[in-house]
Each structure stands twice: as structure tokens, then as C-alpha cells.
Design a protein that fits this description.
By secondary structure, this protein is mainly α. Helices cover 77% and strands 0% of the residues. It has 13 helices and no strands. Helix 2 packs across helix 4 and helix 5 packs across helix 7. The protein is globular.
Length: 321
């Protein structure tokens, strides 16, 4: 019992660490100027592969590679995941470095709602009434924000949809966090390296041109990318999914606060109204998830108490190969 409690506490700390780092990352990208968003993105791809490669070498975890290479379907999905996360990473870096931190944070607030919508449209899932209500309130928030700004919140929507599609594809691939990042950055590596080489030949490369500190920060993009993911993986195996579901709101909350308090981005009344509707939708979603989880646990406990025979162990469900 004590070991379980310690594991749960460790998992909670790992989760807070992961989402906390993701929430504070807007403080990091401006340090990489005058490098442009595309160069920063390319460095993130190249150095992430280097860091993850060293991590895999340290833990000697290579058995997944032959299986992946022998599966054209999984390779295709990994390529799609790499392309989608490239859009997500690049747009997020550009958003932070051009003063759109609040709008970027909105993308990760509405991401759970977009994920639910994709579940209905792609996986033909059936929603509970509270989930339908949350999606409806979320759509109202987008309308309010679009009318208030005079344009759709395209940054938020692109970030939300790209990350939701990324999550859907990763579910189909069914690889661990470290392995998945290694495979995705392996796909990204050659185009990213080619772009950096081209920048170097045209004289537009910031890497190595602004002092050792700036060069080290660009190289650290690999660590900034991989470390939160490793912490997230450690949390995922130690705490319930319901806990992770609550922790995921830490990152956009920190990003939002940074945008308003630190970067002093404008928050007119219509933007506050849009965010309030999004937070209402997420409250509905969280309440429904917690209520459903509580009912499921109660049903399992009741079934176990009523059955005199010890149930056979059941293998955990996995995604389709």
C-alpha cells in the first residue's frame, strides 16, 4: 500500500512537471531570436532526434524498430504524425514569437473538445448529453471570438486540430512516447537538416552567429522537447487517466497567464467572454468524465462483490495495429 501511494505521488509530480514545462515553454522560444520560427523548428527536429537517440541508447530500447520497419502501415502513420506535429510545433513557435501567446493557449484549451468531435466524425463514437453540451458551448465560444476579433481564431483552431489529429494517429500507431518521438523526428531529420544547410549556404543561419550562449540554447531545443515527454510517460503509467485529464489544463492555463501578465497581450471584453465559454465547456467535460469514472468504479466493485468466483485476468485493451 505504501509503495502504491509513493508511486501515485511520484506520478503526480511527473505529471505536474510535464504540463508545467509545457506551460512555461513560451518563456523559452523568444530567447532564440533572432533565429526565425522555421530555423528554430528545424533545430528542434534535429536536436530532438539526437537527444532521444542518446536516451534510447542509455536504456537499450531498440526492439521496436524492426517491427516498425516491417509495417508499411505504421510507417505511413508515423509519417502523417510527423507532418502534423511539424505544423503544430512551427505554428506554436511563430505564435509565441509574434505576440499571440493567448490565442495559442486557447488552442490547447479547446483541444479536448476537438478531440471529442474527431471521435464522433472519424471513430463514430457516441457522446453523452454533457459531452454534446460541452461541444456546443465550445462552438459558441469560437463564434464569439471570431465576431469579436473580426476573423476566426485560426491560430487556436489550427493548433487544436493539428494536435487532435496527432493524438488520433499516435493512438493508431501504439508506440511509447520516447519511441514515437524518435520515429517522428527520424522522419523530420533530413528535411530539417537540409533546410539548415541551405540557410548556412545563403548566409541566413543564426546558429553559431550570435555567441556560444545562443548556440547552446538552439541545441537545447531537443532537451526542451524530450524532457516533458519523458515526464509525461512516467506519469501516465503511475496515475489514473482521470488525473491526467485534469492535469492537462495546467499547460494552457500557464500559457494564458503568461500571455496576459508577462507578455501584456490585450484582453478585450469579447475575448474574455470567449474564454469564459471555453472554460465553461471544459468544466462540463471534466464533471462528466469524473462522474462517469466514479460510476464505472462503483459498477465494477458491485459486480466483484456479487460474484463468488474470482474473475479471470483480462489483457488491457490496445489500439489497432
Amino acid at each position: 500500500m505504501k509503495t502504491e501511494k509513493n508511486e501515485g505521488r511520484a506520478g503526480l509530480l511527473y505529471g505536474i512537471g510535464a504540463y508545467g514545462m509545457w506551460g512555461l515553454v513560451p518563456l523559452f522560444w523568444p530567447l532564440l531570436k533572432p533565429a526565425g520560427a522555421v530555423e528554430i523548428l528545424a533545430h528542434r527536429m534535429v536536436w530532438s532526434l539526437a537527444f532521444v537517440g542518446l536516451a534510447l541508447l542509455a536504456v537499450r530500447r531498440w526492439s521496436w524498430i524492426p517491427e516498425l520497419v516491417r509495417s508499411p502501415r505504421k510507417l505511413g502513420l508515423i509519417t502523417v504524425a510527423a507532418a502534423v506535429i511539424t505544423v503544430n510545433w512551427g505554428l506554436y513557435i511563430w505564435s509565441v514569437n509574434t505576440g499571440h501567446v493567448v490565442e495559442a493557449s486557447l488552442g490547447y484549451f479547446i483541444n479536448p473538445l476537438v478531440t471529442i468531435a474527431l471521435g464522433v466524425l472519424v471513430l463514430k463514437e457516441r457522446l453523452r448529453p454533457a459531452q454534446w453540451a460541452a461541444v456546443g458551448v465550445g462552438l459558441s465560444a469560437v463564434v464569439v471570438l471570431a465576431v469579436g476579433a473580426g476573423r476566426p481564431p485560426w491560430i487556436s483552431l489550427t493548433l487544436a486540430f493539428s494536435f487532435a489529429v496527432y493524438g488520433l494517429v499516435k493512438k493508431k500507431v501504439n508506440l511509447g512516447g520516447l519511441e514515437s518521438l524518435a520515429a517522428e523526428t527520424a522522419v523530420q531529420f533530413l528535411p530539417a537538416l537540409g533546410y539548415l544547410v541551405w540557410l548556412g549556404t545563403t548566409g541566413g543561419l543564426a546558429f553559431g552567429s550570435h555567441g556560444a550562449g545562443h548556440t547552446a540554447l538552439l541545441a537545447a531545443t531537443g532537451i526542451v522537447t524530450a524532457v516533458p515527454l519523458v515526464c509525461f510517460g512516467a506519469a501516465a503509467i503511475r496515475v489514473p487517466l482521470s488525473t491526467l485529464g485534469l492535469l492537462q489544463y495546467l499547460a494552457p492555463t500557464f500559457q494564458f497567464l503568461l500571455g496576459v501578465v508577462y507578455f501584456h497581450e490585450e484582453m478585450p471584453p469579447e475575448r474574455w467572454a470567449g474564454f469564459a465559454l471555453v472554460w465553461l465547456a471544459l468544466t462540463l467535460l471534466t464533471w462528466d468524465a469524473l462522474r462517469t469514472a466514479r460510476r464505472s468504479r462503483a459498477a465494477v466493485a458491485a459486480a466483484a462483490a456479487a460474484s463468488p468466483v474470482e474473475p479471470l485476468p483480462v489483457a488491457p485493451a490496445t489500439s489497432a495495429p
